[in-house]
Amino acid sequence: MQHVLCEYAERETLTATQAVKVVQDVFFNTSNRLYKLGLPLLPIQELDELSIDPEDSSQRWADNLTHLRKLLRKDPSIQFLRLQWLDYTRPDSYKTMANITHSTPRARVLPIKRAVRMFSERKFVGITKAVLGLLQPDTAAPGWGASGEYNAYPCFEGLRPGGRKAYATVQIEFQEHNGDEVPICPRTLLRRQVEKAESQGIEFIVGFEVEIVFMSREKVEGGFQYGSIPVNEGGHAWSTAHALRPDYIMDLLEEIVQKLENAGIQIEQFHAESSPGQYEFILPPLPPLLSVDTLIAAREIISLVAANAGLRATLFPKPAPAHAGTGAHVHISLTKSSEKWQSFYAGILKHLKAIAAFTYSQDTSYERVVDGVWAGSTYICWGTQNREAPLRRIKGSHFEIKCMDGLANPYLALSAIIGAGMQGVNDKQPLTMKDCHQDPSSISAKEREEIGIKDRFPKGIEQALENLEADKQLWEILGPAGDTYCRVKRAEKEMLDGMEEGERRNWLIERY
Predict the structure, then answer these.
(1) What is the pLDDT of the chain when averaged over all its residues?
(2) Low pLDDT (below 70) residues in the chain
(3) Beta strands in 265-380 (DSSP E)
(4) Per the CATH hierarchy, to which homologous superfamily does domain 2-184 belong?
């Protein structure tokens, strides 16, 4: 069959598409009917619609379509394409456990046939310009109205199968209708910071740790509350084998790992964390943009599996007040010009009080910012293999940034971190702060002074936002995204401050 069809194609008796169609009919369709498999197959002609116009000057768009074509040829069962993005407050409001709630981006779903036709004509989904000013209940922060529209530009380099069967997922960037970039788009902001660094010969590899707490949801009058933690039989602690014994929790964890692998995400390891019901999945190191895209996809899959098991997977920073909190630690290495690591991290330390507005993005985040619990300390410092320092040096230019939780928008947080670090490189800033080998809260004020520890993290989001506004250098690095962020976060804070403590806790766990 192979030799005959190849010969016919070479003689132009059959086109390549017609030859493939013969194989499809003889093997796939015949088997489908004979064995009643009911398997879908994306028609070849639809894939061919994704041809690249040779006169198209946009290499980035051509590369995008290449990624999409490859995935559809590899997995013809895909029937839906999910376009996702993160706004400045993160997830949408969902009401049922059947939906994926915490850390879920906003999304549009396209039938794959419609997506293929649209993108072959270089057409895009239109999204209101208010999108980056919306709060969780879909009310707009001051300064945003109903006028204007962006294009949702799919970034297919991060395209991957989704957590649901027959779905693929891709992150988007916002563009004006004429193709101009939108400076306040979170993913665009990070891409710009990465491109600036690359233009100076510096590249990064980034990896995330996903800490998650599995909780049950209980019905109460007028709604639900989150209180019970399912894995709380006694003995649950960091890396304990006891927490990996119950079949129902191991079935959950193993299904998560399998679904992550199906989506092309090969985790490094998983283990029990300190708080009851808390587990950690360590994602692979990747270039910054792909790493964040992968983080979002992984969180979505974890949430989906938990929801299908009747559980709540939450990134809420302090779900069990008496136990350790939940972070979202970031590992960063300089893969080119790594000898400049001291200036890079000196820049981050210089601006960390302001960066905290992105990494600790809500008042509840600061409930986790305490000393003595390996959460990254209240003091701004660094230390080699010091898990009580917010910046833990591991080896060479490889640092773990511990001062971040799951409520943060990782595109914005990483933009601020890389932007501040690159400013330190550009300024050739020396790392004058000494290596801190102890818990900074356990030593004297004089000893902290000798090390060079001067500052502490803010105590709430308002103070963090004030630090951001006062940091003119970081403000300039971020451009209009800084002002947008401050306005949205203050509107969000006002909304949350109007809730009772228990209501606010439930409300945030429902969404994160």
Answers:
(1) 85
(2) 1-24, 27-28, 31-32, 35-58, 89-105, 136-137, 217-235
(3) 269-272, 278-282, 312-314, 330-336
(4) Glutamine synthetase, N-terminal domain (3.10.20.70)
